[in-house]
Amino acid sequence: MTDLRTAALDALATQTIELPSWAFGNSGTRFKVFGRPGVARDPYEKLEDAAQVHRYTGVAPRVSLHIPWDLVDDYGKLAAHAADLGVGIGAINSNLFQDDAYRLGSLTHADPAVRRRAIDHHAQCVEVMHATGSTDLKVWLPDGTNYPGQDDLRARQDRLADSLQRIYAMLGPDMRMLLEYKFFEPYFYAMDIPDWGTSLLHCLALGDQATVVLDTGHHAPGTNIEFIVVQLLRAGRLGAFDFNSRNYADDDLIVGSADPFQLFRIMNEIVGNDALRPGSGVNFMLDQCHNIEPKIPGQIRSVMNVQEATAKALLIDRTALAEAQQSGDVLGANAVLMDAYGTDVRPLLALLREQRGLDTDPYAAYARSGYQERIARERVGGQQAGWGA
Ligand code: PSV
Ligand code: MN
Ligand code: MN
């Protein structure tokens, strides 16, 4: 085996991918939510399903929770349940988009009482973090305006900065805030954190424990996402990815399904900037829904897609690439990248799994396990993602 492949195997052995609890509930569009047999009925069962993904892939040891979707009486008990299943609790997502009070905003609202309510919700999330051992508080701000003149854009930013500061002050020394951006939806004139620049400015003002989350579905078509990755890494503020695939809007489809080359280009910058290494501070999370496909296999496929893109990025001959770039060999440099992208990495990933005592095909192994048939038999009344509260 070449040195490059050996190094790739070592790096792949350390990679982890975090799963979203909401991927295991029923989900859909605003037109229809299709129920599926056997879907998890509560947060405990969502963890059980997530643990299946880890069991067959070996690289998905954490689950993000969404509060209050994943509401339970005792979060210590939920974390213990996760530990029994061989997984842990990852990021805690706050929810600022399902409350009538937030029609005109939450952390940016003109009324201090509404802002207080939104800030206090994060105190509840931080409590959940303490109880579960989570270190990442993920804030996606759904605030924005629909019409020019509807509100004062500058005043909203000032109120947001103040609210975020109050939330940031709640963090323990080992905790981080992950601040997500999205260019549209649920508002369509001006979102209050529409882009990475706005998120980064707020993070820089807050302090070292604040970092940006890059959700791959939250950009305008044609945006060069890998360029954003580089900028955030350069600033030391890329805290996490929400991986998913988009064609039109915030589609939340299986990562790497429509554009595996984009995922490869992103992972190329991650590998090239030494951000794959555990401890580099980048949390690779999925943020997806499986509306028409089965949930657990959908998550297994997603994890495998991330692994494939990562493996290809690890196989880039970076010495040859640097030489070609240095000498201005435009086509040569591009060819180095394309050679790696064109490599069939499935045998390498099969070897990785074999070395870890896993089935070489996690997708097929899960299908054979009988788990899906068992949950379809035993669970009645699957929970809709987003309506756990
Ligand atoms: C918003 O579109 C988002 O991507 C945020 O990450 C939320 O937490 C997630 O979806 C689930 O609603
Ligand atoms: Mn997201
Ligand atoms: Mn989204």
Automatic annotation (TrEMBL):
<keyword id="KW-0464">Manganese</keyword>
<dbReference type="InterPro" id="IPR013457">
    <property type="entry name" value="Rhamnose_iso-rel"/>
</dbReference>
<dbReference type="GO" id="GO:0019324">
    <property type="term" value="P:L-lyxose metabolic process"/>
</dbReference>
<keyword id="KW-0963">Cytoplasm</keyword>
<dbReference type="GO" id="GO:0008740">
    <property type="term" value="F:L-rhamnose isomerase activity"/>
</dbReference>
<protein>
    <submittedName>
        <fullName>L-rhamnose isomerase / sugar isomerase</fullName>
    </submittedName>
</protein>
<keyword id="KW-0479">Metal-binding</keyword>
<dbReference type="Pfam" id="PF06134">
    <property type="entry name" value="RhaA"/>
</dbReference>
<keyword id="KW-0684">Rhamnose metabolism</keyword>
<dbReference type="InterPro" id="IPR009308">
    <property type="entry name" value="Rhamnose_isomerase"/>
</dbReference>
<dbReference type="GO" id="GO:0019301">
    <property type="term" value="P:rhamnose catabolic process"/>
</dbReference>
<keyword id="KW-0413">Isomerase</keyword>
<dbReference type="InterPro" id="IPR050337">
    <property type="entry name" value="L-rhamnose_isomerase"/>
</dbReference>
<dbReference type="InterPro" id="IPR036237">
    <property type="entry name" value="Xyl_isomerase-like_sf"/>
</dbReference>
<dbReference type="GO" id="GO:0030145">
    <property type="term" value="F:manganese ion binding"/>
</dbReference>
